[in-house]
Each structure stands twice: as structure tokens, then as C-alpha cells.
Amino acid sequence: MTLREPVRCVVDVGAGTLEGATGRYEKRLTELAGLYEDEAAFAAACAAQGDRVVYAVEDFRPSADAGDLIFGLTRMVPGKIGREYFVTRGHIHGQADRPELYYGQQGSGLMLMESPEGEVRVAEIGPGSACYVPPFWIHRSINIGKDDLVMLFAYPADSGQDYAIIARSNGMRKRVVDDGAGGWTLIDNPGYRPRSAAEIRNLMAQGG
After folding, report:
1. How far apart are CA 26 and CA 74, in angstroms?
2. Which residue in 49, 78, 154, 160 has a CA-CA distance of 20 to 30 Å to 180?
3. Which residues pair with 28 in a beta bridge?
4. CATH 3.40.50.150 fits 10-207, yes or no
5. Residue 204 to residue 5: CA distance in whole angstroms
6. Cα dihedral 74/75/76/78 (nearest 10)
7. What's this model's pTM, rounded to 2 decimal places?
8. φ and ψ of 33, to 5 deg
9. Tens digit of each residue's pLDDT (9 = 90 or more) over 137-146
10. Phi and psi, residue 45, nearest 5°
């Protein structure tokens, strides 16, 4: 076995960048169609704001081997579509029994989490706070502040991501919206489709 060399990466919180990253991707507003409750507000935002970058991810991927670790930085701009705050696409890991850790660097955000059975949990994320997303939980980041939300993350290198699980249920069970008093609240997603018993069994079997 050949040992890999240790690596040092430098976080620039203000720029939301990771010096030494091996990869980067962006999600622009038009690529997030279908995520928000108010389709007319989404169309108006696209017309007014153009194809702006909503969030960008830079990561360091030493390998995809079991036992290795991928880590990186997410920068998400503030904004809303109608009353709903900007969100990431969200995912469960392709290997659903893999966890993830997020560590807030800047801004004010939430991690919206949903179990395969539809239980919902929310963790607030700010500078100096860590959020542990356990195995088997779907998760989505949300910027509820007025500044960029910047977070470090790390997860097992063989985790993979399954983004389609949210689309198959027509979104997550809850949405995060402006409560009209300077804060946020959860509301039901009326179009939500619960997962079948078979899909739940198949997901949970990955922990066997």
C-alpha cells in the first residue's frame, strides 16, 4: 500500500473559497427550477436577476476509497423566492448509511433534515457551530440570513449523492419560509409524496 501525502488547504471565508481544492461546481438560479413553491415568483426572479450563482462548492477529493474523506466549502448567497428562502438541491448519500458534518464559518443558515419515513429535524448553523447529519437522513442547506452562508463540510469518500430522492417525493416534507417577523418557520409541502415501504426498506438495508 502506498501512503498518500498529507494536504493543507486554506479557507478564505470572505471569498468563500478553498485554496487547494481539486474540484468546484456551481448551481445557478435557473438550474433550481422546481424546488420552490411559488413558480411565478421563481420565473420573475429569473427574469429580474438573470442566471446568477446561488451557491458554489469547492472540495478536496483525495480518492473515492472507503476509509478516505472528502471535505470542502459551500458558499450560498442570500435571497428568497416569494416567501421561501434560497435552498440547495439537497440529497441523501448514495450509500445511505454514510454521515456528514457541516461547520458554520459565516452567515446564518439551517440544515433541513428528513428521515426516509418523513420525520423532520432542523439545525441552525452559524459561525462556530457544527451540524452532524447522521446516516440515512436527507439534508438540504438553507440561507436564512442577509449575508453569504459559508460552511465547511466533510463526509466519507465513498458516500456518493442521490439528489433524485427528493424529486421522487415532489420535494421535502417541509419548506422553510419567512415568518414575517424577521425569522423563519416551517410549513407543510402539500405536494409531498411519502416514500413507499419498499423504498424505505431498500434504503435502510444499506446499513446491514
Report:
1. 10
2. 49
3. 53
4. no
5. 35
6. 150
7. 0.96
8. -60, 140
9. 999 999 999 9
10. -65, -40
